[in-house]
Amino acid sequence: GEYLARFADQNEEIVIDVIKVIQTENWRVQETLVDALMKIQPASAADLSDVIDPWLNGLFSHGLSDKLIPLIEYLTHQRYGDAAIKILESLITPVLKSPTGEYSKYFSPVRFRTDHYWINEYCSKSLPELINLEPVGVVSALKRQLIAVLELVRQTNPDDIELQTGYYWRIDIPKRRSEHGEAEVLDVLVDGLIDGLAEVCRQFVEVGEGILSKCLISEHLILQRIALHTLRSYGHNYPSLLYQVFLRRDYLETAV
Prior knowledge:
Elements (H helix, E strand, L loop, with lengths): L1 H5 L5 H10 L5 H11 L4 H6 L4 H4 L9 H13 L3 H11 L2 E3 L13 E3 L3 H10 L1 H7 L1 H22 L4 H8 L16 H19 L1 H12 L4 H14 L4 H9 L1 H7 L1
Antiparallel strand pairs: 1-2
Helix pairs in contact: 6-7, 7-10, 9-10, 9-12, 10-12, 11-14, 12-13, 12-14, 13-14
């Protein structure tokens, strides 16, 4: 395995064939394969991004994030944004924590499927580059995983889901939790979604309008609040959306 990674740049076709067919939950083998991906042509590494998600189902694969994050950064630098987003979304897929302690509406019962520390580090330091490259793709991925978080929370607290995720965990939308230590899963996703949506509104005004419109009518309070927060800065681009907001008194009373 180490030989394969060491000479990957000289044996790219062999590396590609091995990664396509291998099925393993051995995290050491997986780490070696990621090292090999870093040494082959970025186009080839991007084409293999689909094979990574099943690796993360392994019992000890949660620690693979510290290897995959440099791969995400590498693909981003090489402008293969779609592949980078695909791997990132695999890392940030939420799962329920093992039951520990008493239930509290103020703390999330979910975690990322991979090591939270490295996800938090990446999102606070390197995610802006990927957002700048592919803001629409990043917003779509983070929104999907944010909704996945809400569905998981519904399993643990079906009666209080919107208040819990919409308010208790994030009373102040603009306050970035990731600036004050290790953030909860919801905070990482919300911070990233806010940044991504802002970049969409800067780069692609019409696309931004469509995303904001869907968030404003979403059943999920947290998405409504993110849209309203974004309109504070970019409402001048969307007068029709502002008009809709002002007609909805409940927005102003409950969602800001």
